[in-house]
Amino acid sequence: MALFLSNEGMHERHWDILSMKIGLKVNPISDRNFNFQKVLDLQLDQHMSLIEDVCNRANKEYNLLNDLQQMID
């Protein structure tokens, strides 16, 4: 799960989507106290499939943007 949550493609909009779908505020970008203990406290492991979906989508967007930037350069 840590690999998904540390995905560099995850931006504010992805955390907002994830928070809305889970029903909990999840945002390690703005929450300096977000750590593995918080992951356990929020029971995010129960939402693994959803987290994977959002993170995979974010990663695909990130890769597409990088590819596009390389083509522009």
Account of the protein in words:
The protein has 73 residues and is mainly alpha-helical. It has one domain. The protein is built from four helices and no strands. Helix 2 runs antiparallel to helix 4. The longest helix is centred in the last third of the chain and has 25 residues. The protein starts with a helix and ends with a helix. The model has no long low-confidence stretch (mean pLDDT 88).
Task: Describe the structure concisely for a colleague.
The protein is an all-alpha fold and 73 residues long.
How many distinct helices?
4
Mean pLDDT: 88
Number of domains: 1
Radius of gyration: 13 Å
Helical content, roughly?
A: 55-70%
Main pleated sheet = none
First-to-last CA distance: 34 Å
Categorize the overall geometry. Answer: elongated
Q: Helix/strand/pairing class, anyone? A: mainly alpha
Give the H and E element order: HHHH
Q: Any low-confidence stretches, pLDDT <50, length ≥5?
A: none
The amount of beta strand, in percent, is: under 5%
Topology readout:
Elements: H1 2-5, H2 12-22, H3 36-41, H4 48-72
List keywords for this structure.
mainly alpha; about 70 residues; about 0% strand; single chain
